[in-house]
Amino acid sequence: MAAIQIIDRQKKAKVDKRRFRGALQKIMKRLDPSGREITVILLDDAGIRELNARHLDRDRPTNVISFPMQEGEHSDINPHILGDIAISVETAERDASKGGLTLEQELDFLAIHGILHLLGYDHEKSKKEAKEMKEMERELFEAVHKLEIR
Questions:
Q1: Residue 100 and residue 91: Cα distance in Å, rounded?
Q2: Where are the alpha helices (DSSP H) in the chain?
Q3: Which fold has domain 3-145?
Q4: Contacts of 13 (CB under 8 A, 6+ apart)
Q5: In the prediction, which pLDDT does 86 show?
């Protein structure tokens, strides 16, 4: 089973970490049965804006950022660590409202998106890869929530 750490550094919304961990376990079991480790950090917009500016030179908040540990010069040091995912709960609340989802559903969707990035999926490289990633997001979300998304 995957090792999952959830760090909540925001005060904007109450997140049921036990429920969220269960959803993350389902997602990881389907995607990475080897049981590698991930950390999910829940932030507010100011916190994720700081990460976005520092690591991606984008001085604005975003919904999710992934930090894969399997890339780069020292990727073989800890092969059991898949990486970290930062999620803005504040942005997730706004996106959930716009998309007709609950905050929990939106957090799960963003976690799916982040985990796929950790596993090498990249929607910014090509239309083909974007389509593959979107299909995988739908499949996983439907598996976790028994709810179809568009």
A1: 14
A2: 17-31, 45-56, 89-99, 103-118, 127-145
A3: Collagenase (Catalytic Domain) (3.40.390)
A4: 89, 90, 93, 103
A5: 98
